[in-house]
Fold this sequence. Notes:
By secondary structure, this protein is an all-beta fold. The protein has strands spanning 14-17, 25-30, 33-37, 44-53, 56-59, 69-74, 80-85, 88-93.
Amino acid sequence: MPALTPEQYKPLLGLYAPADMTMLVRLEWRDGKLAFVEPGSTSTLTEIEPAGFPDTFTAAAGNPLSGETVRFRRQASGRVESVFVGSVTLLRLDPVAQDDLVVAD
């Protein structure tokens, strides 16, 4: 049975992309660890480990970004809005609810 996602990590999970939308990654709980993956891929891009501060992680050894700081930024409401990885900021993409879609006549 897969390890359940710890509650403190659930708000971090989801899709992230740079402002220019040149790439898309998903943060998920995989094999008991937080990992950035490409949607549709089975390979892990970067696993991250807690760094001892709230919303701050370090890219795990053996990853392309090994040792880089990974810092999540939240709005005043507590909602995660972005993540800073290495030298790149990725924006969190929220799913669009069916009720939010506007259909032109």
